[in-house]
Amino acid sequence: MRILISNDDGIHAPGIHALYDAVKDLGDITVAAPDTERSAVGHAITLSDPIKCREVEKNGEFFGYAIGGTPADCVKLAIYSLLDEKPDLVISGFNLGQNVGISVIYSGTVSAATEGTILGIPSIAISLCTFTEPIWETPQKVIRTLIERFKTTGLPPETLMNVNVPNIPFDRIKGYRTTTMGRSRFEEIFHKRTDPRGRAYYWMDGEMSLYDGQQDTDVQAVDEHFVSLTPLWFDLTHYQVMDEFRGGWDGIPKA
Hints:
Strand content: 25-35%
CATH superfamily: Survival protein SurE-like phosphatase/nucleotidase
Shape: globular
Mean pLDDT: 93
CATH topology: Stationary-phase Survival Protein Sure Homolog, Chain: A
CATH class: Alpha Beta
Largest sheet: 9 strands, mixed
Number of strands: 11
Radius of gyration: 20 Å
C-alpha cells in the first residue's frame, strides 16, 4: 500500500511518530505535515503566501516533509507535487485530544483527511482522547486493525472515517462502534489579562456541551470505552429544512 500520513500537531509531534511506527511495515509510507502546530485551523488553505517545504530526518534517516502551511495544504502539496503516484490511503493523526462533536468543524486533523477524500483518496482521521499521559499503543493497534479491514471493505465514496480512541489500555477497549457526530457547541470563556505594557489580551477557554436526547454519538461511544467510527462528508446543506426554505424564501419578490 501507498500511505500518506499528515496531522495538525506538526511533524515533530509524538503522535505522528507513533502513527508512523505503527504502519511503517505495511507499505510505502510518506509523511507530509505542518512544520509547526496548526491545531484548530479547520480547512484553511494558503493562497497569499508561498508554501515552504523541507525534508526532516529521524535518527539520521529521512522521515518526511515539513510544510509551512495548513494540514489541507500538506495533503494537496503531497498529492500534486511530492508524490509520483496517488496514495491508496491518507491517514491524519494520531491527534492528541479528541475530535468529537462540533470539534470536527474546527479540527485540522479531520481537515487533512477531508482534503484526501475531496481528492478521491480514502482517508482516515484518528485521535486519541486525551491531552495528558497518552497511551500510544492503543491507537497503534486500532489503526492496524482498521487498515486490515480497509483492505477488504474499503470506504464508501466521498466518505472519510473519523476515529476517536479512548485513552485506555487496548485490552480494556470494548470494541468498535459506528457513531454520529454529536450535536454540540462550546461553552466558551475568555479570560482577560494584561500584558506588561498595560494592554488587554484574552485567552480562550471552555468546554463542549452536548445537546440532550442523542443516541449513538461519538462522545457516548468514547465515554463507554468503545472506539468511535464516524463516517463524515462536508456537504453542509441542511436537507431537513429545504422544503421550509423553498416555501418561505423562494417567493421573495424582486426589489
